[in-house]
Amino acid sequence: MTKAEVIAEIVAKTGIERGDVQRTVEEFFKVVKSNMVKGENIYMRGFGSFINKKKAKKTARNISQNTAIIIDEHYVPAFKPAKEFVEQVKANVKVSKKDKNKKEAVAN
Length: 108
Hints:
3-stranded antiparallel β-sheet, HU Protein, Chain A, alpha+beta, 5 strands, extended
């Protein structure tokens, strides 16, 4: 689902004008981004949390040049869904045959 499809669905369900919904959704994303850039996490009860996840310092290899590269510790944005959200998805989303075949191919 794209952002435009989300906006269209909100418009259909609420009857609010498309322009107002679009501005609201855009502002939501701006607030999330700006606060995460400041290092603040965002918690939404029943939905989940937008968090800054700390990645440890590590050594990586550049295979083409056969050199080691040090990657300093850093933060990456992440989303952690709430338990009830995870349970709803588990209860309602069915695994397709295509997904099962992928898992079997990886296992072999």
